[in-house]
């Protein structure tokens, strides 16, 4: 990627802001605070190389960091800048790693980060490899852009990383005299002399001032290969003087010296056609003969202090964006950092000043910014693999191609995975998790107690698919903000799931090395039909590239007639490497997520399972203060509301309630309207519903039979219910379906009021029966 400002603005050097340059360097020691840590995981790559993934959140701002620390004292570790070949070629960071990995020579790229800014396929700025200039480069037009001042990252002649300023010039020699060209293949400014080769283009740029342009042909060695310290000599073929410069063509195999302004032109007053003239490209001694050098910017840290070498108030510096940077500690350790951005809810990006402070917090003595935005990419070789894979989240959702990358090269590969399984998530908290919904509503939360350790907690996912009973898939997603990265090549993913018996479809979403998405079935459609804890596994499809990352756990329903409400729980997600591994019943999560919903329904209450289950189905509710009042009488209007919620009955567009004692402003009006129109309820009298009257056991039998379309004969008789009783058949059917039993004395007590706990049990039995 090239930053937007490179697409839209001139690259040519301007000196108009030099007088103000000191205003644009920021120094200080106050490190940015990124807030609460929501995720952290360390990965040992090879001895001397460690990857750390960290997420932070503060005041609604999220940031995701990837940091690779490199101990250059490790005997088989080196740092290189990998190029894609000719400057117009590009590759992704991972393809560059593969291109520069050479198993025959035991050279493995185990870590990498994007490097140069680029435009139209080529690096924007100076790139040097083995002292040869790969790309001459251009510069930002002013200090509002990142590469106005001359800073670079490179590897010195003795293999050490270096971040520092540089000063290059072009020394000109002719007729026993000499002069200095201020730069080569850049823009022109009055009062300066610039050297142009065919690497710039076909002709010199124009300038609105007096100009002397000396055209040189037959240069040797060819100026198409530029090497610091090498002298190139040619013969003058033209000397063009004009009031306005820019008419001279740059000859193939030659160059042009363009002197702008009267004083600059006077240096070359004695040069004639046929004279020999030579130039030598020079650079500071510290950069001479360097293995690699790439100019980038701005500088972030110098001498352990924040020193941003551009206007930090400019939009480029101050916006929160995806960023890449490289730093060197006082002990000459190297580290590379990416900060993801442009992804709301995951990572918003970072300003350059905050990035500089973060680099200092990691120990930077010096640090410099690299290309960012959509190019921000870090790759690492995880255990069990031979090539790096992307470990951050590029803002485009894919890797961009680029001309070069900073690479960590090792003479050995990471170790293999030896464990039979690796735990990916234990749900000690939900800081790294979100929930999203398709054709549904819902929420996620943490369930359970941590009093006995992390085993006491799980992720709770509540969903309501009934709000959109249309064609199409409804789904509830549990999503890690930082996808769960899996080392090696696991065969399965396993986890404990507490089902609600709703016959949904349990699935996973994983991302492969090539950043492609794959959907993996844990169950078939409508086969998530169990209630309680169950250990389940999903086989990872063969033929997809590893390593993988887990990006979603979700339930779905494609059948509109089965779209309902419910709650499921997830615990102990694992990557499984041994195909025979299956968690044992002894490891079933110790907590029951359906317990402890009410202050007056303790774990030892006879109805705790039933009442808590129906609360999770959003069917029954408690009272202020957390009470359920299990022994209180349940009223007819309360039961109508429960049944409408449990059966997902649509309450809209119902006929007017035909009862005088149910006004339109009554909270239960819509539920009574729906329940009576559906034939579940009748009134106590023709014009009276009796909403506040307790429901009798006989009435409970009638409404449950109608609601669940029950049938059958039990053959059981109750002494207080003979065949002439209006509810005889309803009570017999409830007994037959094991929804409600009689009392030990052989009675059913049909006129007795039903308690809230009793009706919760009746409703639970009816809705969960086979």
Automatic annotation (TrEMBL):
Signal peptide: 1-32
Organism, scientific name: Texcoconibacillus texcoconensis
PANTHER family: OUTER MEMBRANE PROTEIN ALPHA-RELATED (PTHR43308), S-LAYER PROTEIN _ PEPTIDOGLYCAN ENDO-BETA-N-ACETYLGLUCOSAMINIDASE (PTHR43308:SF5)
Pfam families referenced in this protein's UniProt entry, alphabetically: NAGPA, SLH
Alphabetical keyword list: Signal
Record-given protein name: SLH domain-containing protein
SLH domain span: 594-657, 658-713, 714-770
